[in-house]
Specification:
heterodimer; A: 230 residues; 11 helices; globular; disordered N terminus; B: 117 residues; mainly alpha; 0% strand; extended
Chain lengths: 230, 117
Amino acid sequence: MTETAQHPSLFREAITASLPVMFGYVPLGMAFGILFSTLEYPWYYATLMGVIVFAGAAQYLSVGLLSAGAGLSEVFVATLLLNSRHMFYGLTMLTRYPRRGWLRWYLIFGITDETYALLSTQPQREPAYYGWVTGLNQFWWVSGCTLGALLAQVIAFDSRGMEFALVALFLVLLYEQLVSIRDPWVPLAGTGAMLVALWLVPQQHVLLLAIFLAVMALWGEQWWRAPKAI
Amino acid sequence: MAGTEGYLMAVMAVMLVATFATRALPFLFLRRLAEHPGFLAFGRRLPAAILTILVIYSLAGTDLQVPPYGLPELLAGAVTLVVHAWRRNALLSIVAGTGLFMLLQQSGWLAHLPGAA
């Protein structure tokens, strides 16, 4: 089989695989686009964020951070830790992604929950297949963000209360995490960290301090359980 | 507008770096840190703690001493979790909870509870 004969069927396979992701990413992206429009920036910034960040939960969080005028270090730490689960996805894809070339870096850039879920459950595939799936997934996401932002411009949509989508997203993600780790002390530690932070510092620094405290608590707990290992 | 466009661009750049850093970590630092059992255990539990913080943080503006006393948030949050426990569909759960919250906010039903100043 020649290279050109393989390409059309690889692309078709990739489209088929990414269709279920489309059904999730387009509506979720649209919800982000609409939420983003409440910040009153031009609509194309929603598109831009979808292109250069490509991270659903982080983008939702950024709407809250932007409206509060959060500092850049706060944005950095919050995004880093919110996306920390992505660190583990790379462990699986490490041996499957190409070792060199520009595609390797695009594939790494595009590791999202859904892309990972899709690709990690299949055996080793061609780099081009990975490229198409990642690219298509991003295309659905960016389309959703754009459509949502445009829709919000065109339709007089009473979006009061829409910011609750952020809370709902975090609740859903938290639920899934708790199902996975089955440890009630972790959310308790998080709650404790937040309460202490709220008590100690003004609102604009609360997030950073709470995250710092939670990290210290969890890391300290690891050290306490197995001090020799660390 | 929430801030200047320069601020927005700076925020996006920072998010790009942070997001890419988390995704690239295993590819850059390979075995050493990534296979450290303590780090793995810590990392597996960190997201739940962060998400708990974020749930509380995103609700932080709610005034519990004034009608509707945070009830819309409580009800909408409960609906989100119940729907998610039922279907495990993120989109459905988010739409259900957010929809209820928007309904409660825009209709003002719970705003007339006793205790208004």
